[in-house]
């Protein structure tokens, strides 16, 4: 067998294609079908279990790594590498599903160590700035810290407990050390590590409840900023004014005008595209050879800049976002330095600027190296993982997990057939075709891209890529009480990669899926099958043609945004 | 306010104290008391022998599998030879039990390749399936023992330790705190040592590390938040909060124990850093660095045990399907790119090369020899480290080494066999285990049940006599261990 093989997907029983002679297959005793990333279990791999927490809120939402880092940055002005924060449990390509975020022994150990590390880092400067030498001098600082960190005015008991650490010999020999301990305690507390959503009347009985003001404020600020509410928002919360939709809309607009709103947009983009981790350095070393040492960081930041630019305009220091969700999928504006320039075969426009003019049919985040790295194997072609990704992230349709045994198809062989032709040959029969007829076309459209997003004009044999296809998007199956599907299915035909990406960017089904993913992002749970709120959001997003500000407006002004539903 | 940056070392200084009944004065008083009692205690301990030593369990996991060879031994129960992949363990042959032909515990029995890496990774240490998820549905044996010991009142400064040559496990295991809750090893020996140090009093006398007291104070403050938060939550929220607060409470117990206990007589607080030439910010899992990383961990393991920082340590050579490599000086050939997209001189890629070449054999032998040698060197260290009661650490330690995948006798090129998994157990367990034998499971379904029972035996040995099941099948201990 020469070079790469490609794993195919589907559900052939053992031996069903035993007559086919495929490179690399002869050594295998059995053949099945799979849409896996090979043997590399990716964090975004979907489970085939039920949807945990669909339809109800837990009332407790552990901060994601990015939320933790953003919140600490806002609180203390210190930047934390999200990779140093205990990881979330990924659930079917989502990091925000609250019901699955349990904080274990190692997690609390790590949170405590990290909290103390941060505390010790910032305490000297805090004391110097405050010119404090006595604990009593830190009273107002502590009040402010507790209020912002816990997202509510602390009770006297809470204030007294944390203030006691400032006086405790056990907490340290110096005031500096004790202040570090206080900060470590704050950052280790369940009050800080979980966003709490509680009812306004204190009831915790099963069913629907109106949220407390601070819970609404917290839901709003994390949606838009990935961080906690500021004093203005908390003040509105404590005056009970956030139950008013118009007030929430005004606050949304205020928050969107703040540079921190870019964090929220980046967070949603990561969540929508299941791109949580930087997988650049996991690729085959041959793909990394010509890249600078800091390529991974550059590529990740480039992803963020593209999100900023598409939704806010990268040059804009603030102001309401003008972009649309579809722009994330259609933008031709990419940013970066040496690594991105090489990967995109790009030129800086103008020379020396971070704005790059890529070569080839590249558009949108689906062709960004950060996203492609998240959903491809270490080398070679990954059409089926990418097709599966398109269905699951952009169309909200689950593709069943792969069966255990998979046939292998050599990426280049002597048959004279292209890779696509050979892959189609082994996946064209039922039951393989049940999945492959769907994920194949969008996956094949990515054949020209390597796992880090380099565009290749031709395949290994010099043949031009066949990236045409027809993609059936939407679902005809009824999914609500009235028998309506989320989106009626349509066939989307395309002749090449660019055409498919452009069509996806404009497709109603993609907007509907983005709305569903946004709903999950906002509420920390999956939507229930017949639930009205996500449908209303989807309708609003479609009517607004995916405008980011309008989509967020539809979320925060919905009556459900100030409610919670508790499970029996 | 300054803008700083926080990097490296979320787990730096791992231990956290805090027993609410302890305050600094009482601890210092206690420390003074210990200093007076210390000689008596040492004398008292010296009277006892190895049965006074804490019982310890080490659990090693290696990724992928031997694939080409059915190991680790061939022969009869008492007359057997180790396979060449496991040759470095020859010097400990008399102290080991060698399980060949074992079907992965917890994994449905089949001819081969039932679930590949997923089932092998999640099942190897949990003896459970994924039940349709990407994760194990119960704790790995190391975590289970640590949790249950603490519940049983056998508290150590660390409930358990998990170290390894990688720090991210992702999906498919092998280390789990509980169903769906994976845990990641600490791969930086500097941070591993930093976590241990507060538990090890300086040799000048029993004192309490101020950092322990500090963490105890913090934990006490934080834990007081728990009951105040609980009332406003519904059932699901309470469950999440309780899980979190139970974890905090468990950590507080560990730290409280670290504060309260005296320094073990065989425990010496190191004065320098870990035993490695690598810098603190090195990529310890990098192929060129793993020898130096292991050199450090080989010293840290006996240190943690001698100081009774914990009774159970997990050690992970690699996560599921690890692209594990060893230094180029070993001369491992480079594989071509394989179907999973990887290539090079690393373990996983070679398991996917579908030709029985001499290069493939050399590569797999190199990796298996390397794992074997590391296990052998750890045993060397345990045998060389004095324990309380006059014996060595090895006298009271049982070491398990198991693997993600095994071997398919009908197709030695099959990369994902969950059958014929090599399992090795070392240590006489204070005389409870009859070593120097091999167990041949013959690849039969019953061999998986034997592994379930072996896990039960490990738990019982560690001090949990009431454990009767582990994983999703079987019951009772593996009586065969007793000879």
How many helical stretches of chain A?
A: 22
**What order do the strands of the largest sheet of chain B run in, or round the barrel if closed?**
6-9-2-10-11-5-12
Please give the largest β-sheet of chain B.
Answer: 7 strands, mixed
Instruction: Specify the biggest β-sheet of chain A.
Output: 3 strands, antiparallel
Number of strands of chain A: 12
Outline the structure in words.
The complex is a heterodimer of chains A (568) and B (483). Chain A is mainly alpha-helical and 568 residues long. Helix content of chain A is 43%, strand content 7%. In chain A, the strands form five sheets. A three-stranded antiparallel sheet of chain A has the order 6-8-7. In chain A, a hairpin with a 6-residue loop joins strand 7 (347-348) and strand 8 (355-357). In chain A, helix 2 packs across helix 5 (175-188), helix 20 crosses helix 21 (532-543) and helix 21 runs antiparallel to helix 22 (548-557). Chain A starts with a strand and ends with a strand. The relative contact order of chain A is 0.15. Mean pLDDT of chain A is 86; it is low at 1-5 and 7-50. In chain B, helix 3 runs parallel beside helix 11 (445-462) and helix 5 packs antiparallel against helix 7 (235-260). Chain B is α/β, with parallel strands linked by helices and 483 residues long. Chain B has helices spanning 24-47, 116-123, 141-151, 189-196, 210-223, 225-230, 235-260, 290-306, 347-351, 358-384, 445-462, and strands spanning 4-6, 56-62, 73-75, 80-82, 96-102, 161-164, 176-178, 181-182, 312-316, 397-403, 421-426, 437-440. In chain B, strands 6-9-2-10-11-5-12 form a seven-stranded mixed sheet, with helices on both faces. Chain B is 34% helix and 11% strand. Chains A and B meet through strand 1, strand 3, helix 2, helix 4 and helix 5 of A and strand 1, helix 2, strand 8, helix 5 and helix 6 of B. Strand 3 (78-80) of chain A pairs parallel with strand 1 (4-6) of chain B.
